[in-house]
Amino acid sequence: MVRLNEIRPNEVAVPVDFKTDAAIMFIGRIHTPWTDRLKCPRQGRLDGPVCEIEIFEPWHQALAGIETFERLEVLYWLHESRRDLVLQSPASDGKVRGTFALRSPVRPNPIGTSIAALVTVEKNVLKVRGLDCLDGTPLIDLKPDRMLFTPIAPPQPGDFEKG
Ligand code: SAM
Fold this sequence. Notes:
By secondary structure, the chain is mostly beta strands. It has one domain: Elongation Factor Tu (Ef-tu), domain 3. It is about 0% helix and about 30% strand. It is built from no helices and 9 strands. Strands 2-3-8-7-4-9 form a 6-stranded antiparallel β-barrel. The site of S-adenosylmethionine (SAM) has 21 residues, from β7.
């Protein structure tokens, strides 16, 4: 059940000290058809609507070569999420699970990830399918889908030994 910012039966919130250990800068903004969390899909689908990822300056050049990948991993900041729940009840039925056992948008660092199908790249705007976030959601990063990415260096001896 999609939440706004309520606390449900048996959920547990903790006091949070919002000091930062690292700073994140938003590198763009995501434009989607959804302006209401209650109407967003819970997970994106590759046959979902075309959405736009706008990249801010000075990061336009960082898109060089991205058009060669058919799928991208998109990382975004679920900016309307509360960040203080350790136990959550996704179905709002009194049954709870730990935040790290869920893909809920409510987490200490509300990072969302989706694998998106790349439709087009036009200057600093990527059209993709497969997102599930609100219109205006800040973009953190883009990476080629790891399943499509061939590392430049071949495997080295010891790469697969237990650390
Ligand atoms: N696919 C991502 C993941 O697995 O990391 C996010 C999954 S999360 C379940 C998706 C839900 O987050 C949406 O259905 C919507 O209710 C909520 N949501 C989307 N954009 C948001 C935003 N900018 N701030 C807060 N909540 C958001």
